[in-house]
Amino acid sequence: MTLRIDAHQHFWRIASRDGYWPPHTLDAIYRDFGAQDLEPILARSNIQRTVLVQSLPTPEDTRYLLDIACASSVVAAVVGWVDLKSAGASASLATLARQPKFRGVRPMLQDLEDDRWIDDAMVEPAVEAMLEHDLSFDALVTPRHLHALLAFARRYPRLRIVIDHAAKPPIVSSQSEPWRVAMSRLAELPNVHCKLSGLWTEAGPHPDLTLVEPYVRAVCEWFGASRLMWGSDWPVSRLASHFGGYGDWLAWCEQCCDRFLGPEAHASVFGGNACHFYRIDHPSDDRQFQ
């Protein structure tokens, strides 16, 4: 039996986020979130493993997540943060790679002023270290970053890259043509994958799923069953509670998968692709998941 995996979720402590998102005005997520909050939700949704993704650009946050992962049987992989342009990036990556569940890096490109930050030769030593240690790259981007990401992905064809939240398409404004052009070009590269995550949050306050569906259809068509992976983006997903909760997002994505890829794609999109991308070991005894 293939593991069902949530390929994108977060934990955080509000006390460590002074000056960082989320602001106190976002009541739904302005509190601590840990494994004890998520595990009952996973059990109800028949999700066995998760990929825990950084949400602060600090080494301390990455260490915090690795500590959680070491104590958790549910967290299968950690995507942390390293300043890829720092002189010590290669050494930091080598150290982190020795942690049993460290699987990749996510620079928070969406928050950087320079849209082309990643398209820079200064990151080459860090990328070479990532390749040496078989680490992946999570791209937290918006449409304005996609041209730089395309250049980066072409420069490093051996680097596994996944685009978080389908690059946060402009669902509310419907000005999607630049996003469509850039994403379709990225999908032509075999090292580029996409997360089916975060789209309800991007859809604004009005619960109209017909606005979201064309974007899901598009990434299904571009990336197919072999390079698309489902993620909840929990607890950020709580900001879209007007659409529904964790299980509702999962069920809706499963329905979309049925329509746009076929039921045979479920095992890949909802687990198998994340296993491969993040090098997640399957338990030797599957019976506990049946």
From TrEMBL:
Swiss-Prot/TrEMBL keywords: Hydrolase
Domain of life: Bacteria
Keyword check for DNA-binding: no
InterPro entries found in the cross-reference section: Amidohydro-rel, Metal_Hydrolase, Metallo-dep_Lactonases
Record carries keyword Hydrolase: yes
One Gene Ontology term of the molecular function aspect: hydrolase activity
Domain Amidohydrolase-related positions: 5-280
PANTHER family hit by this protein: AMIDOHYDROLASE (PTHR43569), AMIDOHYDROLASE-RELATED DOMAIN-CONTAINING PROTEIN (PTHR43569:SF2)
Family: Belongs to the metallo-dependent hydrolases superfamily.
Protein name according to UniProt: Amidohydrolase
Organism of this sequence: Paraburkholderia dipogonis
Lineage of producing organism: Bacteria, Pseudomonadati, Pseudomonadota, Betaproteobacteria, Burkholderiales
